[in-house]
Amino acid sequence: MIENLFHAYTPLFTWIGLGLILSRFIPDSFLKLLGYMLYWVGVPLQLFVLARHTDLSHGGLIPAIAVAILLLSLVLALLIWWALQSVASRKVQPEQVGLDLPVETSLSSVNSLAQASLGSFILATILGNTGFVGLTLAQVLTGPANMDWAVLFSVTNNVVGTYGIAVLIASYFGNKATKNHWWIQLRDLLTVPSLWSFFIGLNTQFIKLPEVVESGLEQAIWVVIAFALLLVGLRMKAMKGWKSLKMALVASMLKVVIVPMLVGLSATYLGVIGEARLVLVLMSGTPTGLSVLILAEVYDLDRNLLASSIALTFVGLLLALPLWLAWFG
Fold it and tell me: pLDDT, tens digit, for every residue of 212-228?
């Protein structure tokens, strides 16, 4: 297991550590540029290549499992948020809502902030970094026979989760001046570049590209992953969201401990064991994806909570990984 952990930690420490070192010399404008390049070019390219090589012989089993895990995470996030808010509301006296502002203005401001925080809490819990961290871990910890499971899970998570459900959640809970309308959320969903690149890749599987092009595209996936992990390290310097540490800690526990444990136990109960089970546990317990930061900027969500969640889930993954290998490997 020590050798497996070494291979799993190497790319994470290498690229994230390099990002931390370079963060002292790289301006914030480059971080935004890199984030948008990954959103508009890197992730669409990755999904295009993965879609072209995705084995659909498993039918809808793996996508169904990925969607079920997304919904499980969503339900748990809502239940825990409402429970925590219910407990907190009992401790807050009415006169504490606003000191110098009218009651209506204070309540409106509090409700707006709570709505943005709720959207961020949900995103931090349901969105995993399956495309970058998940595929990296699956490649070094499992055999080639189980990579199709990892790829299908990652593609489903990105298409349905990151660029499907997440866009709708961010659009609905975003703290924006404009009102939410169904057609605005539909527009936001249909203009996501990764959705189009995935369906193009899926429908061009029968087209054989020159070998040098295919090889270049496959190598490009790992270049994208390297830049994404580098961005994690670069972003960690700018993360100042420790005011939201308590809620981020709860979201992180859900993301990297509770949900993957439930997935592993459920898989065992259903007879899925070995590397196949480990793939499901790894993919469901990946750290919060960097895409939440882009969604936070676009839809004006709680950036502090999301930034803290990203940092805590990466630390949590490093601590939980030996447990997943020992219990579910």
Answer: 988 898 888 888 888 88
